[in-house]
Amino acid sequence: MSLSDDLNVQIYSAKSTVVQPPQQEKKLKMFYGVCRDDYLTSYAADKKRMKLEKSKDGKKKETNAPAAERIPMPTLPESVKMEYRASMKDAQQRKYRISQESPPSVCLYSVLNAGGGLCSATFADNGSMVAMGMGNSQVQIELLATERMKMLKEAKELTQLDGEMDEFGEEMFEETDGPKSVTFVGHCGPVHSLSFSCEKRLLLSASRDATIRLWNLDTHRNVVVYRPLLPLWKVQFCNRGYYFAASTSDATVSLWATDRVKPLRLFVDATDDVTELDFHPNCNYIIGGSEDKVIRVWDVLTGTCVRTFADPTIADRGPIRGLRTSPCGRYLVAAYEEGTVGIWDMAQQKRLLLAQDTDTPFEFSTPIVFSRDASIVAVGTPRYGISFFSMEVASSAAHQQQQQTIVNPTGFAQFCFATKRTCLLDMHFTRKNVVLALGAFEQ
Question: Residue 260 is part of a domain; what is its CATH number?
């Protein structure tokens, strides 16, 4: 059963130029919590806040988490579940924890002479490969691990296999090793955004040519073309796969499913283009950062805008240039054009912290990523570098119940590493909290 089986495509609009959140939005219920079984990492920085209770089926869940059946979700493959469990186990080990005594290690990949320039990039969740979107409309996949890509056998060969054999999963693929890299050709415009599915068998690419393409990494073929009809800014899979969100150049955010060629939802609350997009970890909400300087949270089930995060005191800081939700689902980290990094608390519906650096504006989209234990958030700095901030300071500020935003708090900024004129497009924390980063040199 999918979200669209009993609900038609609907358009929800509440356009407004008011910066302050409407009062009715504050009254709307938001399930910002994440079910314990769905955690991709252990949120060690906020354990005291976590209040677990046992549901009727005996599974532990966070008190503010949505019901598991609220949004129809596909079942995760067992291989993905095992990988998540291993990731959680590694995140809980103190030896991998980032601190002042144990600074992070960063592995930087610099791209040279990209065709038409490098427009976008994304790492797979396990760090085994990276996808790059080029200005010449091509999508390139590079393997970072030692093994090579596997190629699925042709349909005629697959029909001859015995589906009952134990080795069926291995026999489906060619015996010869595949390539270390592959290039996908299909778009006719720059590729602005990319997103891997949770099982790393599918890849979404969004282009200026007003199409979203779904690529199968087993067959190296384009399997579906989605046509929103307008140039795209962002595309993002939810962490369970199947559903994905996209933003187009008409200030619209849409919800899609991989097996439907038309959107399930259209959200048109924004008054300007939504250039930053993120799926909430519990997959019940889509979060968008707009050129109108407002962050909005939409409910996937009802289509309602349940939260609006904006503040007149930072209205002159410019549009949002980066956006990411914490793994626990409670905090939002946003980067603003004029060089400000802010932490928002969805539980208290207010901004907690600000790190100001007006001398280095974020002219373009900047990557934001959380460490595996979620105690550190990394932000790509405007002038060729990476800054690391402590989420433990943000958690402490949330518990203090302060009315005013804390600006440049002590201990918030942890580390700052510079690159040799490489502008970063994506970053990723491995299971052992090694940072993978990729960018284009002198672009």
Answer: 2.130.10.10
- Evaluate whether residue 1 is within a structural domain: no
Q: How far is CA 193 from the centre of its chain?
A: 11
Among 191, 202, 298, smallest CA distance to 254 is for 298
Rounded distance between C-alpha atoms, residue 342 and residue 353, angstroms: 6
Residue 84 neighbours by CB distance under 10 Å: 19
Average per-residue pLDDT for the chain: 82
What six digits make up the tokens of 256?
């899609």
Residues in the chain: 443
DSSP string computed for 306-343: EEEE--GGGGGG-SEEEEEE-TTSSEEEEEETTSEEEE
* Proportion of the chain in helix, strand, coil states, percent, rounded to 5: 10, 35, 50
Helix (H) or strand (E) segment spanning residue 86: helix 78-91
What is the DSSP code string of 137-203? S-EEEEE-SSSPPP-BPPHHHHHTS-TTSTTHHHHTB-SS---SEEEE---SS-EEEEEE-TTSSEE
pLDDT tens digits, one per residue of 252-278: 999 999 999 999 999 998 999 999 999
348-373: average pLDDT:
83
CA distance 200 to 213: 15
pLDDT in the model for residue 114 = 84
Q: How many CB atoms lie within 10 A of CB 104?
A: 18
**pLDDT for the residue 15:** 42
pLDDT number for residue 51: 43
Whether 110 is in a domain gets the answer yes
Q: Which domain holds residue 31?
A: 10-50+59-441
pLDDT in tens, 198-215: 989 899 999 999 999 999
Q: Examine the pLDDT at 11 and tell me if it is beyond 50.
A: no
What average pLDDT does range 27-53 have in this prediction? 57
Q: Is residue 361 part of a domain?
A: yes
